[in-house]
Amino acid sequence: MNDVLHTILNHRSIRKFEDCPLSDEQIKQIVECAQAASTSSFIQAYSIIGVKNSEKKQKLAELSGNQSYVAESGHFFVFCADLHRHEVIAKMENKDLTKSLESTEKFMVALIDAALASQNAVLAAESMGLGACYIGGLRNNLEEVSSLLNTPNYVIPLFGIAVGYPAQQPDQKPRLPFDHVYHEDTYQQDSNIYLQQLEEYNELISAYYTERTNGKRSDTWTGQMSKMLSNPSRLYMKDFVNSKGLLKD
Amino acid sequence: MNDVLHTILNHRSIRKFEDCPLSDEQIKQIVECAQAASTSSFIQAYSIIGVKNSEKKQKLAELSGNQSYVAESGHFFVFCADLHRHEVIAKMENKDLTKSLESTEKFMVALIDAALASQNAVLAAESMGLGACYIGGLRNNLEEVSSLLNTPNYVIPLFGIAVGYPAQQPDQKPRLPFDHVYHEDTYQQDSNIYLQQLEEYNELISAYYTERTNGKRSDTWTGQMSKMLSNPSRLYMKDFVNSKGLLKD
After folding, report:
1. ipTM of the complex
2. Which regions form coiled coils (chains A, B) (predicted)?
3. Which CATH architecture has domain A3-171+231-243?
4. For the domain B3-171+234-243, what is the CATH superfamily, name and number?
5. What is the per-residue pLDDT across B50-70, written as a single tens digit (0 to 9) for each?
6. What DSSP string runs through A164-220?
7. How far is A71 from chain B, CA to nearest CA, in Å?
């Protein structure tokens, strides 16, 4: 197995870091790797905010649902969907680009662009002996996050990535069965097979938790998911994104 | 430089392939790498459809704006945002999850999940000596794509990835200046610096095209962007996504 496959398959989210900041060189290397990702029609519709200031990191840790490892990370990256750049271009080039910038299509493009870049960043960091954890909790309160990071209109902070020297080596959680996620030529429509795959996966996940908690926990995956999704979260999102000028049409 | 950084930084989109299909082993390896990516709260809200059938590949090439390399690829992967699985879970667990599934937040989660997985897939393929190209053109006509691939409600095909043995080695296009994409502690708000960075980048891109076309082309980046964004594309997207049950609230 080559080193790239090994790094990818060895991924686990790291939530405990040594007290050691990343060097500027490491940060630059990670960002340059992020920038090397594909971007839709060369649009480059994202920005990255690196947070060094310890008060801001602390505040972001709180805003993300008191995830202390945000503050304790060696560096905290915030990945943003960014069409502000293209709004500036509209003025430079004396064009009205509003209809494009407000479209659902371009919102999707910016999200995908930012996510591709971020996954390059995570793998780059991991290849350098660092660990990383995506922080979706950043979306708990984007109004405050935006205000703290001073982001303009047409910019949506999407998630953070806490990066640092790992001080733990957690187990990897088994993923959904290959045949459940990967379909050939047509989306799997046999509902019996589909349900059977989910039930087999439930057994796997339940055994995983039982073993690791001495039997105290034996959640199934579908149980976890139905519990989580029964409590709709971040329902302010549409209004927030709209208020920044995006996703209007 | 380690092999992971080298693979990431060496990326270019490949649009010309040798006539050689991927093996099932290669496909499996690529998908397993995709699945190893982080996923928001373990939700795993994506699916991958691999297209082998040559008529379907040909049809998808046409639907994507006559991109012949879709049909000529060694394998064509379609990455989908997928919350259908969680709608099935609602029935299994006898819960009403509609409010979550319809939310803008969960639409974003599914897009980000799919994109993280896809970038792992691309890097895995590249590390195995293959080349890849993202096909956003798949979104030109998602109604027909969905019908061709038989995707159910709560599933949105987001983009394709054409993968195969590369028969070209294109140049890499320079990315936006590091300081323009990466901000420290606060989003860059000095509009003079911001504009200057864009103008410097315009010179770089213009020189890039001039050199490669013997002076026939000298587009600036902001010129390209304003031209592209002056023609809003895929304005049907919001209605389409809504019709599949997503992004309603």
Report:
1. 0.98
2. none
3. 3-Layer(aba) Sandwich (3.40)
4. NADH Oxidase (3.40.109.10)
5. 999 999 999 999 999 999 999
6. E-BS--PPPPPPSPHHHHEEESS----HHHHHHHHHHHHHHHHHHHHHHTTTS----
7. 13
